[in-house]
Specification:
Keywords: Leucine-rich repeat, Repeat
Number of strands: 11
Oligomer: single chain
Radius of gyration: 45 Å
Structural class: alpha/beta
InterPro entries: Leu-rich_rpt (IPR001611), Leu-rich_rpt_typical-subtyp (IPR003591), LRR_dom_sf (IPR032675), LRR_domain-containing (IPR050216)
Number of helices: 10
CATH superfamily of the largest domain: Ribonuclease Inhibitor
GO cellular component, one term: cytoplasm
Distance between the termini: 138 Å
CATH class of the largest domain: Alpha Beta
CATH topology of the largest domain: Leucine-rich repeat, LRR (right-handed beta-alpha superhelix)
Strand content: 5-15%
Pfam family, one: LRR_8
Order of helices and strands: HHHHHEEEEEEEEEHHHEEHH
Shape: elongated
Length: about 475
Amino acid sequence: MEKENPLLPFAFNSSSFNDNLPLDTTPRKRAVRDENVSLAYRTRKSEASRTLNRPTLAFAPSLKRKMGESFNEKDDIKRRETEFDSEPTVLEDSEEDDYKENISYKSILPPSSPPLDHPLVSEFDFNTNTNSRYDLPESPENKHDYNDFPSESQSYSPVKAKQFSSEADFGIDSFNRFKNISNRCPSSTGDRAFEESQVSYVKARDIILASFEDVKTVIDLEGMSLYELPDEIKDMNNLVIFQSDLEPISYQLYLSNNKLRCLPPSLFKFTKLNVLGLRQNKISSLPACINKLVHLTDLNIGSNRLQFLPSQILELPSLQTFRAGPNPFLKVPEDAIPVENIEGNSLRQKKFVSKPRILASNRSLVPSLKTICLNRIAQYDVSYQETKKWKKFTPKLYHSMIIRAIKKGHYHQSCSECSNIVVEAYAEVFEWWDILQNKNVPVRRQLCSGGCLERYQAHNINEIDEIA
């Protein structure tokens, strides 16, 4: 037989094809077959190349078994003796017979499950002891105290709400929009009032957007329990209407009988507004940027919490109807100085002036360095990312002043004699005016320095001698 012939392992001989039996079916010795087998057609292993067989099971496995136990009776012993840092044990031929009794098996692989102090049992095992009880681990301690949130029966507490109010953004949200966080609805409290305010807010926003799409200039948001006016109201200023007749278009916004505590700066970007109804709300102050509503002809601020009005209310050129009462306005004090009207304007007449009240501890004719810094912050258009850096690198002592500066800047609370934003006023003066049909309406003027106070006194020549 030729050794290099690849057909030899298949018992093919070199006889003629004409023979009756071309295949040699005579059995050959095993040593002869293994010697002539090529590597490419190896079908069996020789005695020399046979490796150690794996240990067999000592018992027949059952389909129902206890959870956590292995089929191998020595598996629990191997699991306890496993060392992951050690080298695997090499078995000799002589140790094969004593494997089940004396071997100490170590593997580099981790066990399939961690060792248990007591075996877990399956619910389908008939050997389960139903009287046994396995204690469950205690739940982790809750880090949040949900009892701090007021319930439905409890009244809203501004002190508690302040703990959950987010001052991290200094009133600037993630969309770089200003939010007045001091007078907003109690948020993050989980009470019913907050949920209702969110529903009414979304409904009011839909009404504003629908008015813009349907080209409606009259927006009625009365009696909706609104705590906050949506910022989409400023988009009404971009509404363009083409008409053939010469009848003027009247833009009207009605917010009566709501729960508004303050007005957003976006409202005063709606400069086309002609009629504004704010009756029966909880507004405690009107912002100075109300003078931006130059086309406002009808204003109703009755039944609110106003003690005085900003001096910018006198700068509305088109105001024809003004309803200011009832409100808890400041009464004319006994030491107020009466003023004679020399201008002859019957629509607006100044009746009384109070003595200047100095609020600053250091009296100076020029603004202090603190006033200049706060004025710079108020006039800066800060972004949300910048406020995060301010909070991180600025001492916490100045955070409240930064919030006030950003708020005053968005409401344009400027000095009565100059363009500086008044964050901490140097002095203030109250005046009582007769505005249209309203008598003795208090108006406050804020001044940023002693020099502005002197200029104010110089402009009011009639009161200089009396005030001095």
